[in-house]
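Example record for the data management plan.
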Amino acid sequence: MNSERDKKPSINSRAGKPSSELSPDYLSLKDTIEQLARENIELSSKYSAAIQYLRNKIDQLLTVMGTTPLKPEELDNTTLIETDPIGIISNSFVQILKHLHKTNEKLKNANQEITAIFDSAGAGILVINKEMKILAFNTKLGEYFFKDKTIFLGQPCYETICNFQNPLAECPFRKVFQSGKTLRLTGWVINNRYYDIVCAPINHNNGEVPSLILLYLDITEHIRMEQALRQSEEKYRDLFENANDMIQSIAPDGSIQYVNRAWREVLEYAQEDIPNISVFDVIHPDCSECGQAFKSVVFGEKSGRVETIFITKSGRTINVEGNIGTVFSEGKLVGTRGIFRDITERKKAEELLSSEKERLAVTLRSIGDGVIATDTDGNVVLMNKISEALTGWSQEQANGRPITEVLHLIEETSRTIKENPVSTLLKSRQTITLSAHNTLLAARDETERLISYSVSPIIDRQSNIIGTVLVFQDVTEKRNTEEKLLKAEKIESVGVLAGGLAHDFNNLLSAIMGNVELATMELDPNDKAHESLSRAEKAIAMATELAYQLLTFSKGGAPIKKAASIIELTRDSADFALRGSNIRCSFDLPDDLWKVEIDPGQISQVINNIVLNAVHAMPEGGQIHISAGNIVIGYDHPELKQGRYVKVTIKDTGSGIPKEYLQRIFEPYFTTKHTGSGLGLASTYSIMKRHDGLIEVASDFGKGTTFSVYLPACLGKIELNPLDVEKPSPEKGRGKILLMDDDEMIRLTAGEMLKQIGYKGVGAAEGNEAIEKYKTAKNSDEPFDAVILDLTIPGGMGGKETIRNLLEFDAGVKAIVSSGYSDDAIMANYRQYGFSGVLTKPYRVKDLSSVLRKVIFHK
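Corresponding structural encoding:
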């Protein structure tokens, strides 16, 4: 624009020339110039107006943009026109508008986020004005107070929240409008719920508080949890203090922090004692490992279950068990806590149970019956030693196997396989006991044994079957024993019969012997009849000995001991046993053998049994050597009393006795022979015991056996053998004798025998008659000097009861017991029953004379 102005001619370019000198062109130009000047002024005015307009618009734009108006010195007019500031500002404004649009979008989003946060806040938010009217509230506040209400903005908060008709004069939130300070309320109760409330003012720039914002936090559950926690703590404290178990807390140095009532009561400490003791005062001093264990726990080295011994304040010891835990804070041990229980009684019970269990185990191992326990499937779970021996299966081999595989049962008579009783019981599912006899058990090695068994269910506390137990016995020996007993009973029956026959036989022999002897005494020794009677007398003596042996063999009762020589008795007994055999016997019996106190008949039976045993051991023939010698027994034979004995040794060259049988040969009914009764050596052993003697055996299997018999020696006078019939004449005496015997023949014969030797005999058939006659004679001038009482009176009072009645009447009665049962205990121990002498049937005149002289005249 300036360049255009420069091209115009200057108005003053022709100055100084008069107008008359001006040409018309000049005048025309002048008009043009003036017009142009006017236009220029007009343009200048418009220019200034335009400049001002631009500046105004620029200021408006700058104001809209938030900028102060543009000053003239900041931008001159020329630059303003040349740079097109409107365009620049317009472009900038467009950019600003775009930025503002984006900012508004962000503000909108932020506002939405704020609104979302406002509504989703965990606390209730309320905005009120000075009139206490609601300006805004969030969702949580609505949940707190407006669940069942329709609330509009502008309603008073005291009506909608506090349920008051009018605002409280002392409402704490009103004061916030005045103070402008934030207010906090704790545990504010509204509608039975607890709230923490924060009330903050919303301040304007002028310092006024037109509104308040309130935050409501519902702490009802927290309050209730605190209350529950307090109740729980009270319960815990109550449980802790009143627990039956002992509870303690121990500091790292072993001092006691706290204990409960049970701890104090059990250990006998008062509460005031606790600060003055430590845990090491409680641990028993003899339990060194206990102390070490506690130290390990106290110092945090370990924790867990502990069993130890505590000592009470009074020194009493108790066994305890418990659990100990360590307590750490920031990695540092602050103590231990433990709960203990007094197990002293349980320990005692466990010890008793252990002892009982051991006893049961020992019992099970040592019981004579086989025991097998199974589970409910019939599989073996337990076997004792006897069942292992009988079945041939060990516990390890049989464990878990079916019982039918271990126990094979066979019917004895039919030889058929028998159903296993365990299987039968388990199939029935009944709590019953099954038993059976006469069943064969086939062992693993095919050995068969006769058994009896019973099987019972094992029941738990709910009466459920949890298994079975089978108990079985090997009754093979029992069956054999029963058969032997039956045989023995038969033998005993025969023995009873033989004893009765021997008694009656002795009564007959008494009459025969007495009459023969009386007849012999009447004849001249040179008379042929005298010789015949003497032979008859010998035969009677032999018959007497036979009857005596019959009694001894049949019953073997108490020995009637007398001093005798063992030499002839041994020879005669051995010869008797060897009759008809092909055995050669040699003797070594010195003449200086001591006398022995024996029952000749019973010792004869001993020799006889041993020799017969040797004969059976040598069926093809052999040798027996019998020797005897005097021996003094000291401490080397504890079975015998110390003193003098005669030892008789019988040695054979037979097959010998197996070692495993040596300890059993004296057992009743034990025999290895098919025909033996098993009673011979048993009765031999019994006879030796009754003689205070001993029998021993030694054997070398395949080479022979040696029996040794020890008989007590005596210093008494030897009584002659009954077989020795050459006797001196009987000595005569005098006196009145009462003879009680149920056999009339014996009474008559004995009466004649008494008369022959100078005595007067009076007979009585039984005890009552004898007592009556004795009393009558006692009260007269002719009392009885002695009485002879038969021991056995069939159907009447015998000698035992009669002597008792006579002793009650006359303590000085002189009575002689007589019987054909020479083995009766009364005959052996007659003095214990009140008798003064003994007379064995059959007896001779000499025997009668001898016993009467001893009893009456003590000769």
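Summary line stored alongside the record: The first strand starts at residue 124 and ends at 129.
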